[in-house]
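From the thread on structure requests for the teaching lab: each student submitted one protein with a one-line request. Submission from student K.M.:

"Model NMD protein affecting ribosome stability and mRNA decay from Pelomonas aquatica, tokens only."
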Amino acid sequence: MQIKDVRPESFIKQIRCDRCGRLAELGEVEFQDFVSIALKAGYASIFGDGNDVQIDLCQYCLRSSLGPWLRVSGAAARLDLLEDRLLRFDAARHGVSSRRPQMFYCRCRKPTVQRSSDVRTCHAARDRLSAGAWPGRAHMG
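Reply posted by the TA:
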């Protein structure tokens, strides 16, 4: 028999930008656009061996600090990447018995992928595919 109990867990309620001091609360749109970096410095690091390095930046400070080096791409670039990966798909090489995936548009009018005549993956699964994982069955749109 398993006896369960509830224990409180910590979560991030607010984030304050370490550069400008902007504050965002959980649930606000700005909250999702913060970037948090946390790393443990390695051997011979300029930060010191094994030291923890952390920073939280709002989107404005991220752009003003790192703007020239940021690579920003939109949905069209992700779709191009997906189409490129589909063109390189080889069923025999990848151990899949279905034919090469084809692009089509589901009823929601978003580009999506068809793996065989009866299995379709919706646009929500497309991102998993572009990340390198083949999605399972999804709605027909």
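TA comment: Residues 115-121, 134-141 have pLDDT under 50 and may be disordered. The beta strands are 14-16, 23-25, 35-40, 52-57, 102-105, 111-114, 120-121.
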